[in-house]
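EI: anyone free to look at a 236-residue chain?
SC: sure, send it
EI:
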Amino acid sequence: MSEFLNIENLRSYYGQVQALHGIDFSLRKGSLTALLGANGAGKTTTLRAICGMVRSTGTIELDGRALIGLSTETIARQGIAHVPQGRGTFTRMSVEENLQLGAISRNDRTIPSDIERMFALFPVLKERRLQQAGLLSGGEQQMLAVARALMLRPRLLLLDEPSFGLAPLVVRDLFKTLGQINREERTTMLIVEQNAQLALELADRAYVIETGEIVKAGPAAEIADNENIRKSYLGY
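SC: here you go
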């Protein structure tokens, strides 16, 4: 597999405050990678930098195309979908309207069939298709946020804390579906997740970030088996 996303010497800023201090990592096409670390380590900032949401310098390339300097909308059109922490669904719109909005940039005749594909992946959304998103449970809203991102038919799916605030059984079902999507559709995924143990079970590779710097990298199984890394950086 070839490198798909390449990041080199990435430095990101909020005003004058530097959040990332020259990080380097890459994703292979079709991979599922976990980005792990404590709160405030720079995980969310990394996803925002890829999407063009924070001021950044260095190199971010998707399939050889430079992303730094492009607008967030232009980056999304390159096939990058972002599921932010907090889900970001449009609460006054119905489930189906949210899904349609996720495909607004496509404007093609396959949108209805893709909506049905989302309903097959997340059957509860079909039952709620006409219900306002704000009336869904937290787990259902997270499923909707993921489904809406998938409506873009992304080449790269970025997920920020998908398990946050969800019951353990809901989290397991959601992660099982993410694994299915990765295997069957070969959608490249980068997952930021506080539940490091669960993320390492799902991922094939992992990076550990601390205070804006990558401190460990390797196959997910090796990271999970390294007691020193787990205790020092992942808290379990």
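EI: The mean pLDDT is 93.
SC: 👍
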